[in-house]
Amino acid sequence: MANIREVAQRANVSVATVSRVLNQNGKVKEKTRNHVLAVLEEMGYTREQKQDVREEKKLKRILVLLPDIANPFYSIIAQGICGAARKKDYLLMLCTTERNYDVENHYIDMLRSGMADGAIIITPIMSGSELEKLYAEKNIVRCCEYEEDINTVSHVSIDNYTAGVDAVQHLINIGHKKIAMISCDNGFLSTAQRENAYKDTLRKNRIEFKSQYLTKMESDYGYRTGIRSMNYLLNLKEPPTAVFAVSDIVAIGAMQAIQKAGLLIPDDIAVMGFDDLDVASLYNPPLTTIYQPKEDIGRLAMELLDKKINGIDTGYESIFLEHELRIRKSTVK
Length: 333
Hints:
By secondary structure, the protein is of the alpha/beta class. It has 3 domains: about 5-55, lambda repressor-like DNA-binding domains (434 Repressor (Amino-terminal Domain), Orthogonal Bundle), CATH 1.10.260; about 60-160 and about 295-325, Response regulator (Rossmann fold, 3-Layer(aba) Sandwich); about 160-290, Rossmann fold (3-Layer(aba) Sandwich). The protein is built from 13 helices and 12 strands. It has helices at about 5-10, 15-25, 30-40, 50-55, 70-85, 100-110, 130-135, 160-175, 190-205, 225-235, 250-260, 280, 295-310; strands at about 60-65, 90-95, 120, 140-145, 155-160, 180-185, 215, 240-245, 270, 290, 320, 325. Helix 1 (about 5-10) crosses helix 2. The radius of gyration is 24 Å and the shape is elongated.
């Protein structure tokens, strides 16, 4: 005897859609309703199984694909997702992909097989075309990362380019011209946007872009990246007087290297971060950084996914939340 989840999988719709058809409530397109009814009849699903509907509705499962949980940035986004999910009685499955395509695809197969009703993909590795195809078949939302030329898969993020401009312009406004950037070769759009903002802001202010001032290690947003990159910058013939780090954790690593070299922050070198993690304001000196509303990013991603699962067709949504430059003593006394 078929259950509602099996019917939803065969009909290629959500469990919630099948439930609305059975209970004759909620908005369902006529074409979809007729298709679901045909599948119900084909699979021998009877009205007497409505109790199964109530039981299945309690088991809404959501995949949350995170690059890792060691980085506090992703952990805080996950907190926002969890808070919104609890209010809607979703069961969350937090999965770390370690930025590995095969691992990510393994978890996506769980979604394809009907083991989950939807997924929030944070910094996806799969291509834009793969995401579009998946979005057409299943309930997914992207979080933080997105493809600029794809307007089908909804996402929540900040405007990383504008935020990067604000960060670099602050360093220029306080008098710096020898400005370096510590980045990562991780393939993220957010990273590329911050790098482009760095280059464009220098040029806009008639400051020459020097390739040796842009470090890109094949690594993640870890503090060791900051240490190693800063040591390289300190050994240049003309070291920078200011550094824009691609994340707070990277910035903390850079600050450690600067202080270990016997230099003062910001007297000898000013340091700018990105994200505004809790550690940013606790470090000595406190770190100037770009604030991201991390919990709100997670919460809104969950709300978008909930709408899609429940058949509320809002179309493609590209949500950019506000950012804020928070000036502390790592750039000004």
